[in-house]
Amino acid sequence: MYTAQPKKLLIMNILDILKRYTDQDHRLSQREIGEILEREYGMTADRKSIRRNLLDLIDCGYYIEYSESIREKKDGSQETMLSDWYLNRTFTDGELRLLIDGLLFSKHVPYSQCKELVEKLESLGNIYFRSRVKHIRTLLESAPNNRQLFYSIDVLDEAISHSRQVSFHYTRIGLDKKPHPRRDSTGDVREYIVNPYQLVTANGRYYLICNYDKYDNVSHYRVDRISDIRLLDILAKPPEKVRGLENGLRLPEHMAEHLYMFAGESVRVRFRAARFLLDDLVDWFGTDMVYSDVTEETVTVSVRVNEKAMELWVLQYAPYVEVLEPGSLRKKVGKALQIAASKYNNTQEVKP
User: Fold this and answer.
1) What is the edge-to-edge ordering of all strands in the sheet holding 290-292?
2) Does the pTM of the predicted model rise above 0.85?
3) How far is CA 252 from CA 202, 256, 257, 260, in A?
4) Cα–Cα distance between 104 and 180 in angstroms, integer?
């Protein structure tokens, strides 16, 4: 129960009621709005006042819908009746659910921050939406715990917008399951100075596409592994001067070529794949693949992709994929499969 409020807040309380109680499937009459005002806000208002404030909200730019009907008055004149008021929401329930699920399935947002963001997204829905998503509020506390994540994103966003370099420490997970900064050969914490170009998501992770300033190729760093980031006053190297970005960063092509966000140059790969993998092929490589030698059961695929990433991808689908070229990749995959087969063909009993 809300405490009694001054009349000047009437318009804001009506807006709050529309946000909390209405959508296209749940509409309110002026009488029903008045009942909620009295019951929950300790405020009384006649229907004319409620109608006037609703129309004022529309004049202020709020997308409020209503239905019209004509009523015959006793004196024979007609009166336009407005009812079935509801707020046309910025996000539909489906859109909010999609955003919440995206957070819940992210692998880079710390538990406490993910929980706060989910609550903020839930607040954009009405009471009916919140009652339907209670069952998805099960967040795992085993998620990463880099509390600097959003600060790092803010700094990187500013650096990219103003073409500035950044420096940071980069962590790796130790046996204690906690992040530790990488160190150089002398044992000192290693400082990375990079030229940032783009933030992207891949495989549930957030990555920075950049150039490590000591070299001339493209690098990728997981943003949740970045700590102690600083914005530098040094202008970033133009992407056109980075090997692989001579024609600028073409993001769809870049993401398709770097399946697991490994650094290094891309090569043209031809492989034979089972046809039932067509959906998976598009998911991984996009639509720029070239098909040939199509049969009822197999298809030959030509695609440009990072060689190391392709090696891991082929091993993942090994029973159904055969690399045809380049020969160097075919040999690497064959050697890896031989090593794996030798481990599993070993008849020696494995201790539990």
Assistant:
1) 290-292, 298-306, 266-274, 321-325
2) no
3) 12, 6, 9, 14
4) 25
